[in-house]
User: Fold DUF1330 domain-containing protein from Celeribacter indicus.
Amino acid sequence: MPALWIAHVTVTDPEAYGRYAELAGPAIAAHGGTFLARGGRFVQLEGRERPRNVVARFDSVEAAVACYESPAYQQALSHAKGASERELLVVEIEA
Assistant:
């Protein structure tokens, strides 16, 4: 079943986070991920607000997790650590 990768992000170092973004997009695409939302307009109804929200669709939870664990994504992630506060989750889409 398809899955969504959902990230809620506050960028604290735009330069370093920019390096993350340059590498993360190709790593996600290489694992079949397609972006549905990348930092667009949003309305926070509950919980902690993060100014950047990203949603990508994958063929499965396993594909999304494999992307996250891949060397290419981990290389990208090394630039986001210390440059952002973020939550990331993968959720399966019900058919």
In short: The longest helix spans residues 14-30.
